[in-house]
Write a structure and sequence with these properties.
Layout lengths: L14 E5 L3 E4 L4 E3 L10 E2 L4 E9 L4 E8 L8 E7 L12 H14 L2 E6 L10 H14 L10 H6 E11 L1 H12 L9 E7 L16 H14 L28 E7 L5 H13 L5 E7 L6 H4 L4 H14 L4
Parallel strand pairs: 7-8, 7-9, 9-10, 10-11, 11-12
Antiparallel strand pairs: 1-2, 2-3, 4-5, 5-6, 6-8
Length: 326
């Protein structure tokens, strides 16, 4: 977080964009992030027995990732691979944010997977669709480790079953996962995208639905955040945030056999996630959709409180989904 801010003629800091609780932008372009800027080191987590390390994925753009895997993997065993995209409204956070590091360690311990937590570049310094393009590059990096590729990361080469690859994310990261799954339709990845996990997805729309009609305060906040990260004439019906908008790619183009949508009762984004699930069920897509609706919780509660009972149950549900038990 920046400690020195530009001053106007009166000696006061001059704010041109204020987006609580994420960030402020000052007149000279200085960006002050109010949360999600903390970092923690990788290594062996004694609480979960999960090992992590940081790797550079794309030297030219600086796109990197934190890799997580169980500390001990029996010789010859191949684990599912999860490409994970963090949330933060495209504005804040990273794979080394302690909240993400700790919660993903718990998920890896429960699900017994190799997980690549992607550090895509953030707005406003890097406006959308940079985050989507960076994440696409991360997906291609992972695919380079298949038998036909040139990848050199031993954790992927030695420990991953490339017939069981999942795209996953929470909030903005869930929207990224969805866009990549659609985008993969016209690409030969040389690995099987078996499923998609959308946790509290950051889906939105111009016309309010269900609880958005009465929750005008939080709706206005989400409207403001999206207009900041993606100013366009389509507004909240841009396909990057509304997968059901006119002109958005058809859901039948999803390149996976199953989808898990996770929502939380108190989340302003809940109804959009449920609507996506319902629309997927009614579409021409041939896969299987599942819904987890967590009672009594708000947006990405499992990131902020990964030790609570509901988070533990959610991690178990994610693991069951990836291993074909739900």
């Amino acid at each position: 977080m920046e400690k020195a801010f530009p001053m106007d003629s009166s000696g006061k800091s001059e704010v041109v964009h204020d987006l609580p609780p994420w960030l402020r932008v000052y007149k000279d372009g200085t960006v002050e992030r109010l949360s999600g800027y903390e970092v923690c080191a990788p290594g062996l987590d004694p609480l979960t027995d999960v090992l992590s390390k940081d790797v550079m994925l794309v030297q030219e753009t600086g796109v990197s990732a934190r890799l997580h895997r169980p500390n001990v993997i029996p010789k010859g065993q191949k684990l599912p691979l999860v490409l994970y995209f963090h949330g933060g409204a495209y504005l804040i956070s990273s794979p080394w944010d302690p909240t993400y590091h700790n919660s993903l360690n718990k998920l890896v311990a429960e699900a017994k997977v190799v997980l690549v937590s992607v550090d895509y570049r953030k707005a406003p310094e890097h406006p959308l669709p940079v985050a989507f393009d960076d994440s696409w590059d991360a997906l291609k990096w992972a695919a380079s480790h298949t038998s036909a590729g040139s990848g050199s990361e031993p954790w992927l080469l030695d420990n991953v079953d490339f017939n069981r690859v999942f795209l996953a994310g929470d909030s903005a990261g869930a929207s990224i996962a969805h866009q990549l799954m659609i985008r993969s339709k016209n690409e030969k990845m040389m690995m099987k995208l078996a499923g998609m996990i959308l946790i509290n997805p950051y889906f939105w729309g111009n016309e309010p639905i269900r609880s958005e009609v009465t929750d005008t305060f939080r709706k206005a906040l989400v409207d403001k955040w999206w207009a900041f990260v993606c100013p366009s004439d389509k507004g909240n019906d841009d396909p990057l945030v509304n997968p059901l908008a006119a002109g958005a790619p058809s859901l039948e183009h999803l390149q996976c056999e199953k989808v898990l949508v996770c929502v939380a009762e108190k989340d302003i984004l809940r109804d959009r996630g449920v609507l996506f699930y319902e629309s997927l069920e009614k579409s021409e897509w041939k896969g299987k959709a599942e819904l987890i609706d967590v009672k009594g919780e708000d947006h990405v509660f499992h990131i902020f409180n990964p030790d609570c009972e509901n988070a533990t149950n959610l991690f178990k549900g994610l693991a069951s989904f990836m291993h074909g038990q739900i």
